[in-house]
Write a structure and sequence with these properties.
Oligomer: single chain
Radius of gyration: 24 Å
Distance between the termini: 32 Å
Largest sheet: 5 strands, mixed
Number of strands: 5
Low-confidence stretches: 1-12
Order of helices and strands: HHHHHHHHHHHHHHHHHHEHEHEEEHHH
């Protein structure tokens, strides 16, 4: 196999365009169908509610409050601002659009010659469905993976313009998920080392230049995002709480369990043998890249397990080397034109698609409809309290209570008005005698957090008891609270709610989510297409990475505008960021055409 060329110098024919459109449509329909089949009105995945309140807080206090993962909230604010669509719908649409765009970008990475071949479609299909493992709520990881693939495609081009674009996409990837930037940079730098050994020094220089440029861009962005309100100290997950209280041994044991679970979900027993066959069929830049990715994948998982610095299963989830190699192995088997290899290839495709489909269609929103309704009702009473009043929500349930408490906290923060997010606190029952260290730490830490908040504000807290979150008897202070609505009791606080305040946790509908997904994919493609035309060689596969390029450019534009004082939660600010991101590429494309 020859070294892949992402964008041939002749335009792709109509058949290639049709195949590419069919691939995108298939992936998008597969993603969107979850919401229709199960009637969901919220984005799915445990972290979805985290991004909802992160976005609300960022719109109210600035992107500095989500420094380190500011990319996706910035893009969500722009998309919501220009369309007047709620963030619930925006994020559900983003799950579908970014998962689809990931499959398209992976397809572009392996493409060569002038046609969209069977191999290209297989890679796009398996990579797009592999993305479900992070599309289930891990928005920053999903965005990072898409941007990393886009940068890899640009580096296959090998021109100065493509290198600059790759640096921009890598920088945007770092601003989207700073923790994983080191992993992406390590993959590319090891690829550069292998390129030098293969005598491809020009390619190595291009890769190193892109990484250094991205690191500089990330550093500038980090410094700019450090100005303003500090990130809110909040436990967004059980992992975050265990890390905050120092229970690292328990955290690492959870990581080991989840890595084993993800390995089973990813059906590595099928992916790895197919990947070995696929690796033998590669050469040149693609082989060096996939080899480096495999090595860094293994080292990253080991580092996460040993240190507990990050969830190692997330490294596995973003490693699209797995489906790319598996698809290449399947293509190699199909090309042998014998019954046994063809049967093995068909079995491999079926197993990988069924496994990904099972994970996606088992995904559920972090917010149940009854919980959202009760949280919204409580949010109207919370809005009627003086600013700074601690808003205490009681939570009780079976162990691990930490999981329920952190999930409930995310939901409450997503439900209250954005200017009250930092006032939300959680109360849990005192631990029983002999309770484990995690349960003891949960009660001690949350009680200390609330005590400190009351001391700072000088205001008495208002306590909420919502029926969906009280799953075991709770003898806390809200036992004497008044019932204001079915399933909602309040201790202290106002006598009447503030019904004039809009609460952001309103469910969407499958139809609105589908429309948002299609429009988001098309809009990101429109933003990126000008930059692709201005930077890369023409070809039908330029369309394939346009959404990924659009995500990167829009991320940089949105953060830049917000950092100079243009609010993204206003229609004018969001439109300004969108116009600059789109027009910049088309102006460069026009200038390049004139120079020709």
């Amino acid at each position: 196999m020859q070294t892949p060329t992402a964008f041939p110098h002749a335009s792709g024919n109509r058949r290639s365009g049709v195949l590419l459109a069919m691939l995108a449509s298939t992936l998008l329909v597969a993603y969107v169908s979850l919401f229709f089949l199960r009637g969901f009105g919220f984005p799915v995945g445990a972290d979805a509610s985290v991004y909802l309140w992160w976005t609300g807080l960022a719109g109210n206090k600035g992107l500095s409050v989500v420094n380190g993962r500011s990319g996706i909230p910035a893009v969500a604010l722009v998309l919501s601002g220009i369309s007047d669509i709620g963030t619930v719908t925006i994020y559900a649409g983003l799950q579908c659009a970014l998962g689809t765009a990931t499959g398209l970008a992976a397809a572009a990475l392996v493409a060569r010659d002038k046609q969209v071949t069977r191999h290209v479609i297989l890679v796009g299909l398996l990579s797009g469905t592999f993305a479900v493992y992070i599309a289930t709520g891990y928005f920053s990881t999903l965005g990072f993976g898409l941007l990393l693939l886009g940068a890899m495609v640009c580096l296959a081009e090998g021109t100065d313009r493509a290198t600059v674009l790759a640096a921009g996409l890598l920088g945007a990837a770092g601003l989207t998920h700073a923790l994983f930037f080191g992993i992406g940079a390590a993959v590319l730098l090891l690829t550069a080392v292998l390129a030098v050994r293969a005598g491809e020094r020009a390619q190595a220089v291009s890769i190193v230049g892109a990484v250094l440029g991205a690191a500089s861009l990330l550093g500038i962005g980090a410094v700019a995002l450090s100005a303003g309100a500090a990130p809110l100290v909040a436990d967004t997950s059980r992992d975050g709480f265990l890390r905050r209280v120092g229970l690292l041994t328990l955290l690492r044991s959870l990581y080991v369990h989840r890595v084993a679970l993800h390995a089973a979900h990813f059906v590595l027993w099928a992916s790895v043998p197919l990947g070995v066959v696929g690796w033998r069929a590669t050469s040149g830049y693609l082989r060096r890249l996939l080899t480096s990715w495999t090595v860094i994948l293994s080292l990253g998982i080991a580092l996460g397990l040993a240190t507990g610095w990050f969830p190692p299963e997330r490294v596995l989830s973003v490693s699209f080397v797995v489906p790319i190699l598996a698809a290449t192995g399947i293509e190699s088997l199909l090309s042998r034109r014998h019954a046994a290899p063809a049967l093995a290839a068909a079995t491999g495709v079926g197993v990988l698609l069924v496994a990904a489909g099972w994970v996606w269609f088992q995904a559920v929103p972090p917010v149940l409809p009854i919980e959202a309704a009760r949280a919204e009702e409580a949010a109207h009473y919370a809005a009627a309290t003086p600013p700074g009043t601690p808003l205490v929500f009681e939570v009780s349930g079976a162990d691990p209570l930490t999981f329920l408490a952190t999930r409930a906290a995310n939901e409450f923060r997503a439900a209250v008005p954005p200017d009250r997010i930092s006032d939300v606190y959680i109360a849990v029952p005192p631990p029983e005698p002999g309770a484990d260290a995690e349960r003891q730490a949960l009660w001690t830490r949350y009680r200390a957090d609330l005590t400190a908040a009351v001391r700072r504000s000088g205001l008495q807290p208002v306590t909420f008891r919502l029926a969906p979150f009280i799953r075991t008897p709770f003898a806390g202070p809200a036992g004497a609270a008044r019932a204001v609505l079915p399933g909602v009791r309040i201790l202290g606080g106002p006598d009447a709610p503030d019904a004039s305040v809009a609460t952001p946790l309103t469910p969407s509908s499958p139809l609105h989510i589908a429309v948002a997904a299609v429009l988001t994919l098309l809009l990101l493609g429109a933003v990126g297409s000008g930059w692709v035309r201005a930077t890369l060689s023409p070809g039908i596969l330029g369309v394939a990475i346009s959404p990924g390029v659009g995500l990167g450019v829009l991320t940089l534009s949105a953060i830049g505008f917000e950092r100079v004082g243009v609010p993204l939660n206003s229609g004018a600010g969001a439109a300004s960021a969108m116009v600059l991101a789109t027009a910049g590429g088309w102006v460069l494309s026009w200038r390049r055409s004139r120079l020709r």
